[in-house]
# Entry
Amino acid sequence: MDGELIIRPVETALFFILALVALGLEVWALLDCVRHKPGAFEATGKRTKTFWLALTGGATLVGVISFFGSGGGIFGTLGLFGLAAVVAASVYLADVRPAVKDAGRGGNRSTGPYGPW
# Structure
């Protein structure tokens, strides 16, 4: 019984930190999606801005529910929807964001790190 008194607060703190990091990731993806022009999404072939706004917005909503909710069940940080929300935000940040960001700057893909090829 004494071990449970030590483990429970550590487990609670760990889930709180995971939920906070997940929520931060989801909010970052949503805010980044909002700031880009709709044409940049279509120019890069990464679906539409509406699609990504809905996906990152839904991920943020699930993150808020996970953060302020009970922390368990399918909406918990490590629940089914919590993990799907983190994956959706991560896909946006890792794949869509760099392409859209490049398209917003003109998207000249024939340039290297030191200028044109």
Observations:
- Residues 2-35 form the longest helix (34 residues).
- The helical segments are 2-35, 38-44, 49-68, 80-104.
